[in-house]
Amino acid sequence: MERRSRLAEWLRRRPGAPGTARGGVAAADREALLLGAAAASFPVAPAAYPSGFGCSCDRVGCPTPGMHPVSFAWQTEATTDAAQITRWLLADPPANFITATGAGHDVLDVPAQAGRIAIARLETEGSGTGPVAMYGDDRMLFFTASRGTPDDEDEWWPCELDCHPETLDEHPGLRWHCRGSYVLLPPSRLPDGSAVTWLRPADLPLPDPLPLLAVLTDACGQVPDVPEPEAAGGWPSR
C-alpha cells in the first residue's frame, strides 16, 4: 500500500505536471551552480536523472531513479576541475550531479522540519550554518568540514557504518554522509518533480561537524516521528 501511494504521488508531481516544483534551469545557470560548488572545493561527478517514469540509466526498474552516480568509479572521477565539469555538461545537458563526501567535506542530512529548528537556534546563538541545501521538500543537507582521516583511526568511520544515499526510506532520521558516500548537488532534479536547491550558498565557510551534529540531533528529537540518530542507524554509538 505504501509503495502504491508513493507511485501515485510521483505521478501527480512528475516533471511537467501543473503546479509542481520544477527542476529544470537554464544551461548557464546550471553551469554556474556546479562551477560554484567546485570552486567551493566540492568534488563533482555526473549522476543519472529522471527520465519519463524511470531513470536515464540502463537498469530496468532502477530503485533510485535520477539519484545515483553514472559511473561505478564516481569516487575517483569526482573533480573540482572546471573544464572537466563543463565537458560533462556539454556531453549530457540534463544530467544530475553528485558531490563525493568524506575528503574535503561531509554532509549532515536531516528532515527539513528538524533543519529549520536547527537553523533558527543557530541564528539565535549567532552561529553560522555553513552551506545548506534543500533536498526537495522533505530533507535538508548541512555541508560541514570533513572528519577526514585523523591519526587515531577510531576517530572516524566510513559511511558503511552509517547508511547509503539510497536507504533514505529505511533511515529517515539524521544521516552523516562521510567517507564513501555522496549527495546530489543543486540543481539536480528528483523523481517527484522537485529539485535540490541552495538555501545557504556553497561558498560559506564549512563548520565543524561535531557541534553542528549536536544541534541537529537535538532538533531531530523535537520533531515527532523522527527516530534518534542511533536508533535510525544514523551514526554508531561511541
Please tell me about this protein's structure.
It is a single chain. With 238 residues, this protein is an alpha+beta fold. 28% of the residues lie in helices and 18% in strands. A hairpin with a 2-residue loop joins strand 2 and strand 3. Helix 2 packs antiparallel against helix 4. The protein starts with a helix and ends in a 17-residue tail after the last helix.
- Sheet with most strands: 5 strands, antiparallel
Strand percentage: 15-25%
Question: Rg, please?
Answer: 17 Å
How many helices in DSSP terms? 6
Shape: globular
Helical fraction: 25-40%
End-to-end C-alpha gap: 38 Å
Helix/strand layout:
Elements: H1 2-13, H2 27-39, E1 44-47, E2 50-51, E3 54-55, H3 74-77, H4 82-91, E4 96-100, E5 105-111, H5 112-125, E6 132-135, E7 139-145, E8 175-177, E9 182-184, E10 196-200, H6 209-221
Antiparallel strand pairs: 1-4, 2-3, 4-9, 5-7, 5-8, 6-7, 6-10
Helix pairs in contact: 2-4, 5-6
In short:
The chain has 238 residues and is of the alpha+beta class.
State the main characteristics.
single chain; 238 residues; alpha+beta; 18% strand; disordered N terminus
